């Protein structure tokens, strides 16, 4: 049984002293397009278990097996991805009870390709942990042979679809480097359009491809993630062994048994978390921030970014892991009513506003939850507190609405907006918040995040990011 449902609303003010950042990406609709490149390391295999449970939220255009400076020969010789997809197929019927958008196992199988696993294409004697943006270019893919993986990247990028393509380097990026080289040489008329769609999230530069792409394909957006180490990587969440035993390797979940580590160890997970459409809109611009971290622009490059700190990932660990837990429970829960699902946020007036200084701004959102109320669970979780107030279980049965309490707070966070000042948020009823647009001398942006979460077990969180542009009077 689910525990207490409690719809909560938190409005989080985000502002910082950066210059205004225009969103130069074209408007697009539909699910984010994702290409995963994985070197098959043990943490990749754990991340893949996690990723497959989010295949409903993205369009999986390819899963490409490649290599890296740590796994120089790759692991396509072993059927680890095929085994995980077969396990996914075993739980797919249950997953579709909770979200009908989960793709078929055959669709995922058709998306698996082999890319560059040639160890000669990975530089020798390099510390890839410290290979940062702006470093010396160490590779040249010009004379390398094409691979099924690189050809798939070319095919995807040449499509007329205007959506960005989130290419994720869980290992190295050599396969993508070859694809970009081919686009430049063989499709010059389409090259710029194709490369402008690339958002390449690199878990370190694990084979030197990142530095090659920075210099030779500057229209691609590159994100260099360093702080996955210390948040999602090996050895950081060693206190999560009970989580693994209870929700993954419990003998009940066919997919969970392929989680090979005894604790959370998913060094590559931030790459796909960045592209999730969870309402934070983090994938719209690297500086916005979200489950996959927050990034700053590297000087000297048009489209290269580095992540700012461990905190930008750690602050989202709890909601991300609770969401993962809920989806693991979907795998083994054949009825919708017995599992938890994220609240739904509806915003009728749009997320982006332009207002003048001095204008009253009212942001309104409707939060709902499809899950049935679990009075038994509510009493189990909060009964002692209610008893202290003289209330009984019979009272709760007669007054189920009384247990829905709303907690609200607002807090400043130097994440996204350009306005460097305090904005006094005031709540209006249960669904709106207001503030007076501050005085500005030039257009400034204010990002306000609405966070809605239930109090079931596990708690699930939804978001809506409002971006308010304030112009002078």
Tags for this entry?
Inosine-uridine Nucleoside N-ribohydrolase, Chain A; eight-stranded mixed beta sheet; alpha/beta; single chain; 473 residues; Immunoglobulin-like; globular
Give structural notes.
With 473 residues, the protein is an alpha/beta fold. The protein folds into two domains: 32-276, Alpha-Beta Complex (Inosine-uridine Nucleoside N-ribohydrolase, Chain A), CATH 3.90.245.10; 339-471, Immunoglobulin-like (Sandwich). It contains 13 helices and 18 strands. It has helices at residues 42-52, 80-98, 105-110, 148-158, 174-186, 188-195, 209-216, 241-248, 269-273, 311-314, 317-331, 375-388, 393-398, and strands spanning 8-14, 33-38, 59-65, 112-114, 165-169, 198-203, 221-225, 295-297, 304-307, 344-346, 352-356, 360-364, 366-368, 412-413, 426-428, 432-436, 444-453, 461-471. An eight-stranded mixed sheet has the order 4-3-2-5-6-7-9-8. It has a five-stranded mixed sheet with strand order 11-18-17-1-14, with no helix packed on it. Helix 7 links the parallel strand 6 and strand 7 (221-225). Helix 5 crosses helix 6 and helix 5 packs parallel to helix 7. It is globular, with a radius of gyration of 23 Å. The protein starts with 7 loop residues before the first strand and ends with a strand.
